[in-house]
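Lecture notes, unit on protein representations.

Consider one protein chain, 351 amino acids long.
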Amino acid sequence: MSRRSTKILKTVLDTLYYTKGYKALAPITQGVGAIFMLHQVDPAPIQDFEPNRILKVSPDFLEQVIDGVLEAGYDVISLDEAHWRLQEGEFERSFVCFTFDDGYRDNWEHAYPIFRQYDLPFAIYVPCEFADGRGDLWWLALEHLIRDNDRFVVRMHGEDRVFECATIEDKDATYHTVYWWLRGLDETEARGIVADLCRSVGFDQQALCETLVMDWQEIKAIANDPLVTIGGHTKGHFALSRLSLAQARFQVEENLTRLEHELGTRPTHFSFPYGCEQSAGPREFALLREMGMKTAVTTRKGLIYAEHYRHLTALPRVSLNGDYQDMRYLTVLLSGAPFVVWNRFRKIDAA
């Protein structure tokens, strides 16, 4: 999301908050619960150019969120408990689940101690190639390339395109253009382009994964705590809808089998990589049902409603976004009011 889009969305959320519009809509829009989506928990200050800052929240903000939902009367529950409540229609109290994608090392270093202190459950979705230290964090590699270079050349649509990016504004624009162009390509091709760019400037792309992501020893240690649920996230973090059905099944099966081998338990919860409408749809939702998942989560925006018991492998989440680390934004989001517009007045978005 561009800085301009972020500013516009913050204005909308502020308007709903300060006019109390979210309270007026809440009786219609509020669900039975919410699944929070996080990636990294990092105390380091946000840099001037950090387009992936949306994937980071501070430990202090995570604690504020936990305190806030507990004070508001929400139950913080595991994914197994959420699955049971949806199946049984047990909605006397609203609930939230905390989920983390990708298995970043700061989940162990900064998030886990907080949940341990509060004695609350959470889940981490692990792609096994990431835990092997071979994960392709191409979106972070692209960020590093643009941060470290004031001139950037990419071969796009058959010709070299030169990006002059000496200023923060130019770097933001360059990242936005190149990232979304790559997202429209075959993912193997897109990853190859970023890898070639890294090699051309001597950037060690592999070190990103080894530095940022938990290894198997760390994952095994955290998985030993009953508060922690380890879920699947594919073998190599590919968008499943862009693969053939056989390839998608392979990505899921390899991931679940490897996690079972390493941890002794086969996961029953799953997160779709990228998770948007272009990355996971009805075919993928059906595949995960067939493969025995109790739940599978997307990155589609929304709360959990009672009707989601029919769509347990197409669950939306509420992003705890690094650009919105303010409790007033969370208050508005948990009312469900913004999702009325984003989801075109539909509670369930599983198409």
